[in-house]
Request: fold
Amino acid sequence: QVQLVESGGGSVQAGGSLRLSCVVTGTRNSLCMGWFRQAPGMEREGVAVIDSDSRTMYVDSVKGRFTVSRDNAENTLSLQMNSLKPDDTAMYFCARRNFRNCRPGFLSADFGLWGQGTQVTVSS
Reply:
């Protein structure tokens, strides 16, 4: 059974950094992967995606601060988050699309497999 397991969330002050990890278990992973986040009372928002060739796309609000990467040999996906802001506070989810390429727009409906999420809290 294929599963996504996130880790690395926590609490940090504004300006700090966190690194999220997502391990894909049960299969060799070479598909489009993404990070999404959802704050209380808000819709789920796409943050960053990376395709099988490690081409990346980011939502404007995190460009220059967040970096998504993958290690296909280790079946892992990472999100390095720097210069964190209180607005980054949310539950972060990794997700997998059933295609090698990613599409612009970061639509949640494009992704069929989700992890359980890891909480990121940024205080001012």
About this structure: The radius of gyration is 13 Å. The first strand starts at residue 3 and ends at 7. The chain is about 0% helix and 50% strand. The mean pLDDT is 94.
